[in-house]
Amino acid sequence: MFFNNSIAQNKIEVEFKTGEDDLAVRPANVQGNLKITINYKDGTAATVLNNANKNQTWPKNSIRRVTIPLPANANVFNMASIELLRSTTSNNIEDIGADNWDLMSLEVTATQKKGTQTSKYQLLVKRGTPLNRFKGGVNCDCNKTYPFSTPVLVSGTTPWIDKFAPEQKSNISAVFGNGGDDLRGGNDNAKVVILFKNSTRTLVFNNLNKGAKWDNFTEKMVSGNNLPSIPDVKISDIKEVQLWHTGGGGMGADNWDLDKFKLTIFINGESKVLVDRVGAPLHRFTGDSRRKSFYVE
Question: Residue 31 has what pLDDT?
Fold first, then answer.
């Protein structure tokens, strides 16, 4: 099945982390671009995305996210596996022109909309050193299939289910994918500020790296400290997430390249993913640019 990106409300997002050997474009008569196939348990025709890298090289240590539209009746619990294919021509010899690609990690999520409710599920998280080396040439190792695990709900404003009201606290969890320029730490730290539509008050989570240096091309998963919730404010009232680099400007100012940022908020027993973005970089923090704003849908 092939679908139009512009009209699909259901989708799969596949995140690739490349290792020390990039995915490089080769002539079509030598090697094809990346093809992604989503297979289904009940034998429904597979969903296919050709040329997933859009004729572009994916540099070493880079993060790329690919969106695949799904049909309106797609069911995340019917999804069986993802197949990655980097084809080579059938008659090529041991070809120094064929590309090898190191895949370090693969993450797959599926978004499904039913009525007014939109839910996101995690289907797969795989990591390795590398996870797989796609080898071109006559001894092609260019096809790999990964079965999906049982879908886990990761966003959709999951309500608390209990006879007791939850503690009136707020917190966050965040994933930072660092690019080619590190976060120095010390006085140069990461801070998150949450802004609301109907309140001038904010939730501020300081020093998320706890003063530590975050090296180039590393991924960090952190949590904030519990804060008292703001009265009469709900998750649906959040309008903006600000990510700050707390360092100063001038000579010797620390720069920081951020390639990935995912932020989940927890308020009074409910949770929602507010930001889930990647880029190359997503943002470069400099002495003249210390804040990046993300507006919540």
Answer: 84
> Is the model more confident about 167 or about 237?
237
Nearest of 7, 151, 154, 152 to residue 79 by alpha carbon: 151
Q: What is the dihedral of CA 184, 191, 122, 297, to 10 degrees?
A: -140
All residues at 6 or more sequence positions from 271 whose CB lies less than 8 Å from its CB, including other chains:
155, 157, 158, 235, 264, 265
**β-strand partners of 136:** none
Q: Are 104 and 60 in contact (CB under 8 A)?
A: no
Q: Give exposure, 97-136, as e/b (b: 16+ Cβ within 10 Å).
A: ebbbbbbbbbbbbbbbeeeeeebbbbbbeeeeebbbebbb
Q: How many CB atoms lie within 10 A of CB 163?
A: 4
Residue 13 burial by Cβ neighbours in a 10 Å radius (0-12, 13-18, 19+): middle
pTM: 0.81
**CB 138, CB 31: distance < 8 Å:** no
Domains of the chain: 10-155 (2.60.60.20), 169-295 (2.60.60.20)
Residues 133 and 141 sit within 8 Å (Cβ to Cβ)? yes
- Contact call for residues 148 and 81 (beta carbons, < 8 A): yes
Give the chain's radius of gyration (CA, Å). Answer: 21
